[in-house]
Amino acid sequence: MKDRIYISGPVTGLEYEKAAAAFYNAEREILSRYGTNVEVVNPVRLVAEGVEWKEAMKLCLAALLDCNYIHMLPGAAKSKGARLELMNAAALGFGLCNEHYDLERYDQ
Fold first, then answer.
1. Single pTM value for the model
2. Which residues contact 51 (CB under 8 A, 6 or more apart)?
3. Among the four 16, 42, 60, 108, which has the fewest Cβ within 10 Å?
């Protein structure tokens, strides 16, 4: 089974195009490093622009559950949604795709 990496970061309160660009850049970096050995879950691809926060989080959290790594974008600590995603990922024992795009496991 391929590792699935969920990208988490701020969107609410930011210019949508700039926020989306950060997610797409991270997706490209992860795929350029790991290629077809991983699947990337990019919330910007899952949630249409303008969807209400609560509905967006339902979609994002459902997608998160199928992953086993999380990658946190800069500014994620200031985002209520990203903190919620990280809390769930930590509770489920996910690894971290760090800022250098290395995959770190904590259960080994």
1. 0.95
2. 59
3. 108
Q: Judge residue 34's burial from the number of C-beta atoms within 10 Å of its C-beta, 0-12 exposed, 13-18 middle, 19 or more buried.
A: middle
Q: Could you identify the residue written with the tokens 């997608």? A: 63
Check pLDDT > 90 for residue 107: no
Q: What is the pLDDT of residues 56-100, one digit of tens each?
A: 999 999 999 999 999 999 999 999 999 999 999 999 999 999 999
Residue 72 · residue 6 · CB < 8 Å: no
- For residue 108, the model assigns a pLDDT of 52
String of DSSP letters for 6-39: EEE---TTS-HHHHHHHHHHHHHHHHHHHGGGEE
Element (H, E) at 58: helix 53-64
